[in-house]
Amino acid sequence: MARLCGILTAEAGFKTGRGVTVKISQGCIVLMADCNEVQELREQLYQAKQGIKDVLVYLNNNYREKITLDQLSKKFRASVSYICHEFAKEYHISPINYVIQRRMTEAKFALTNTESPLAEISWRVGYENVDHFAKLFMRHVGCSPNDYRKQFKNSLVAQAYLLPNT
Length: 166
Hints:
The protein has 166 residues and is an all-alpha fold. 77% of the residues lie in helices and 0% in strands. It has two domains: 2-6 and 17-92; 99-161, Orthogonal Bundle (Arc Repressor Mutant, subunit A). The longest helix has 45 residues, at 18-62. It is rod-shaped and about 90 Å long.
């Protein structure tokens, strides 16, 4: 700080005196406060990003369960809009669509690598209603679960599509 005051005094045209020193000191204090504020904002941004990563980990660990935005809001002590906005900003997908995508990925794997009935696969990936699951599968994958199974059963092509995007 003394070095900065010396530089500022030199820039002021070598003016000396108590008034100049006070002004320079005030400038240094403002500068330090601004630096502290920037550091606090950086820490908040880091914590926010870490919080959104925690949401992703939670979704990956619990995608089979019923998950609502209100539950996420309470669990992570943040508003629904904040979670949705920050999650979409970081991962380019909403939290709920991420859960659906995760479930569909698991369902595609089960369809192509097991003989499990559709109702069991539906339940295993988090859908109690097999008809609802089949409609969502059709919407997100582009074909019915049974057609997907017939087309890609034990296929390396299907397994290549199952690689995670995150």
